[in-house]
Each structure stands twice: as structure tokens, then as C-alpha cells.
Amino acid sequence: MKPIFDVAIIGAGVTGAAIARRLSSFKLSVALFERRTDVSFGVSKANSGIIHAGFHHNPSTLKARLEVQGNSLFDRLKAELGFPFRRVGILVVAFSPEELKTVEALYEIGSANRVPQLEIVGRERILSLEPKLNGDAVGGLWAPTGGIVEPYRLVFALVENAQANGVSLFTDWSLAAARRADDRWLLVSETGETHEARRVVNAAGLYADEVSGFFDAEEFHIIPRKGEEFLLDKNAAGFPSHVIFPVPARNSKGVLVIPTVEGTMMVGPTAVEIEEKDDTGTTTENLDRVFSLAARMVPGISKRDIITSFAGLRPTLPGDDFFIDLSRKAPGLVQVAGIQSPGLTAAPAIAEYVKELLQKDGLELTEKPDFVPTVGHSSKVVEMNFAELDELARRERAFAHIVCRCESVSEAEVVEAIHKGHITLDGIKFYTRAGMGRCQGGFCTYRLLSIIARETGMPVDQITKRGKGSTLVVGRIGDAGRDMEDGSNTLGRAGFAPSGRKRSGSGD
Ligand SMILES: Cc1cc2nc3c(=O)[nH]c(=O)nc-3n(C[C@H](O)[C@H](O)[C@H](O)COP(=O)(O)OP(=O)(O)OC[C@H]3O[C@@H](n4cnc5c(N)ncnc54)[C@H](O)[C@@H]3O)c2cc1C
């Protein structure tokens, strides 16, 4: 007999993952359903990775409250889950007395939101804080609590920890219908598979409106707001060490210059409302626009250093606030919709808020005495010195075998990712960083395919970039698992042909 879940969460982005992990600390049976082949393949993989300080949004909004609270929870989360996160601080730069007035307004908002250590700074101080800034800056806002995070690694860690504490994860499981039966919901997938749950959390990102419809719950329309971002290679000169914001635009925080936790640099995002929920293409026109705005703040950045581009779609609602509440129409349903920026920052606080709503709805919460808040640390070649690597490789040879040269990722790390369930090329890339460097997978894609085939037993022509409809190889090929050992390249002979969408439009 299948279990009846106390709570089913629809959507394994950062929101659903944070909720699942929070609920896993109580004596509950919890399931996390995700339509894609891996977690974090929605909006949560294609964003700026900033943990915002909390000075952009009006104190009357729910998102302002959850943003500041979410930010404050990140140190503990990082200590428990070990994902890459650094409080590098945020600077908003003003270039005129008018822009300084906006900076003052941001300071007022931030103070009302109780953002700690917020400071208005003059020209001299801002240039000493960040010497890479354009010398024409006249002052700005300094928010040392702002930070940067590797967003998918955050989601992976949350899900891994939730699973270790008993949460059941179903990937490639797309909710297509829901029916009320007694005190519970019968959830039906696209393929007709069913599960039952007493309560359901709708954390479906861009598709939260569709999911709400399955429950005959609130009617709303998610409007995708597209953001194009451009990634610059590591080691490029002229990079600032803080996140640099301009004074904000009407419907976005503007084009930013963002150091990443891995040492690369991002510029973007744009903010344009669109119709299609899968339109993640980028354009040269926007690249030019983004670069000229970014270079005004940080003149040292150069288009020559771009290694890739991607776009993410913010799931927005009219009114621009989060909609997180118990449904007034569907019993036992919690709506978590309109989670646009700062959703990444707010996620840990959203999880607390949803936990309280579920409790208000009558869900009994008894803490688990055996809840384990931490995940084990995995060894990474990139973090080791030669002596450490030598020692480790003596014990496990696969650490000496570098699969991705740009990011120094070993075969042992790739195998670990596969054994943890990341069996698409993108899943491994986001988990290990193999394929994220300067050559963008030119060197390691074949090797990764070979290792996936060897470890899973999957034929290479069934391995995908990111799940259904994205196979990478056409034609017959040799024994890929053996290729890895003897160094031959049968994939090259068989014809290596990417299928599906083009890289620049992939949102990765
Ligand atoms: C360009 C850009 C930049 C951003 N920058 C920042 C930033 O710097 N800082 C910040 O705090 N926020 C930022 N954000 C916002 C942040 O990325 C989002 O708020 C956050 O990722 C939303 O997470 P989510 O889990 O709600 O949605 P998602 O990550 O989209 O997760 C929802 C999941 O639900 C799944 N799903 C949908 N329908 C179904 C179904 N029927 N059945 C099963 N599963 C389903 C989807 O496949 C998806 O995986 C940015 C967003 C964009 C687009």
C-alpha cells in the first residue's frame, strides 16, 4: 500500500526544497514532486545568485519581510549544509546628486526593514571600499550583509538533507490533476501515476497558476519577467569584489555587476515581461545594452571575457509581491506563488512562514529527536593543495583523474554526483561544475557521457542534457564505459550531435 503523505510539495526549486527541508525536522511524511529530471532545473538555476540585504522593497510587502529574515538565516544554513556562500557586501553606486536622492530613499526603506549595518557613503569611502568602480561615482549605499551563493548547490544541499531526514523525492513527476477524496488530495501525474496527501504546497514557480487550477483554487496569472545574464571568465582583470548595483529601475534592481562564489563574474540581468514560459534565449542586442550599463559602473569589464549567456524568467504576479497563504477555496492547499526576486534570499524564511501556515491549518508539528541538520562534506580537488590531493588519490585513484580541466573536477566527484541521482549532463554540471568553465564542456562532455553510461548502465543515446527531449548523441557508438579507461574516442566516430535548444538559449 502506498503511504498517504502528510504534506506533498509541488516543485523542487529553492522554495519547495527549503520547505521540504524545514518540514523534515518534524515527525511527518513529506513528498517533493518535480516535473523535471533533476531538482533546481526551474528558475532556481538561472538567476543572479545574490543574497539581497533587503533595502529595495517597501516594508509593507511580504517579500521585504521575508527577504531580510531569509538573509539572516544564511550563516546557519551554510554552516549546516556547506553550500558555497559569502557575505561580500553590496554597493549601490550613484553618479549624480539626483541618484544620491534615490540612494537616500533606499536607505530609508532599508532602515524601515531593519537591515543591519546599512550606511550611506560618500565618494572617497565608496572608492576605497571598491577601487574597481568608475571614479565618477559621487557616493552610494553600502550593505555589508549582502552576499552571493551558488543557487543550485543551495537547492541540492537542501534536498539532500531533506531526503536524509525522510522526505521522498519524485523527479520526472509532473502534476496534471488533483481530486479531493475525503480528507485528502489524490494527485495524478501526467503519466497517470497517483499519490495521496492530506495537505499540498504549491511551489511550482512559473507554473503555480496552472497548479492552482488543478485544485480549483485561486485564479491568478503568472507573468514571466525575463532576465538575461552574461558570464565572464575567472581571472579577468578589473573585477570588483562586491556586488555592484546601480540606482534601481522601475520594475527591477537594474543591471548589476556580480562576482560569483566561484571567481567568475556576471553582468545582468535585463527585465522584460514576456508571454512564453520557456523563452530563455539571449540576444546580442541585450548583451551590448547590458555591457554598456555595467561598464559605466565598472569600466574594467570586457566583452572579450564572456564565456556564456543565459536567461531566467521571474515568476511575477500583478502587484509584484509574493502570494503565500492558505487557499480560501481548496482545503489543505498552501499557495506559494509569485516567488520572483528576492525568492532565493527569502527561501529559508518562506519555509518558516509556510510551516506556520500549515500549523494554522491544523497540521501537528512534533520535532524529530533524530533530525540531522547537516550534510556530509564531499572532497573537491579544486579545494585541495597538492599534498592533500596526493594523499587522497593514493586512497582513491579516481581523484587523480581530472575530467574537467577548466574547473579541476575529478572523476570521483562526477561519480559521487551520479550516485546521488544527478544523471543528466546539466545535473552533473550544476552539482560538480564540470563543464562550467572557459571551454563550456568542449573537453569534458564526452568524458561525462562515458562516465554516466558506465555508472548507470544507460545507453549513451539515452543520456540527456536536461531530461526529456534533450538527448545529446545520435547514431551507434561503442562501449562508452570502456572508452574512459583506454582513452579512445568512439563518440567522435559515431557523430556527436546536440539536439534540442541551442546553448545560448538554455538558461544554464
Ligand atoms: C534573472 C533572474 C535573476 C534573479 N536573481 C535573484 C537574486 O540574485 N537573488 C534572489 O534572491 N532571487 C533572484 N531571482 C529570483 C529567484 O531565482 C526565484 O525567486 C527563485 O528561484 C524561485 O524559486 P522557486 O522554487 O519558487 O521556483 P522554481 O525554481 O522555478 O521551482 C519551481 C519548480 O516547480 C516545478 N513544477 C512546475 N510545475 C510542476 C508540476 N505541474 N508538477 C511538478 N513540478 C512542477 C518546476 O519544474 C520547477 O522546478 C532571480 C530570478 C531571475 C529570473
Ligand kinds: flavin-adenine dinucleotide
Shape: globular
Question: What helical percentage do the residues reach?
Answer: 25-40%
The helix-and-strand class reads alpha+beta
* CATH architecture assignment of the domain at 1-84 and 145-222 and 317-376: 3-Layer(bba) Sandwich
Would you tell me the overall average pLDDT? 91
The tally of helices reads: 15
* Beta-strand content bin: 15-25%
CATH topology grouping of the domain at 1-84 and 145-222 and 317-376 = FAD/NAD(P)-binding domain
State the total count of DSSP E strands. Answer: 22
CATH superfamily of the domain at 1-84 and 145-222 and 317-376: FAD/NAD(P)-binding domain
Radius of gyration over alpha carbons? 23 Å
CATH domain class name of the domain at 1-84 and 145-222 and 317-376 = Alpha Beta
Extract low-pLDDT stretches. Answer: 479-508
Report, as a whole number of angstroms, the end-to-end distance.
40 Å
User: The biggest beta sheet, please?
Assistant: 8 strands, mixed
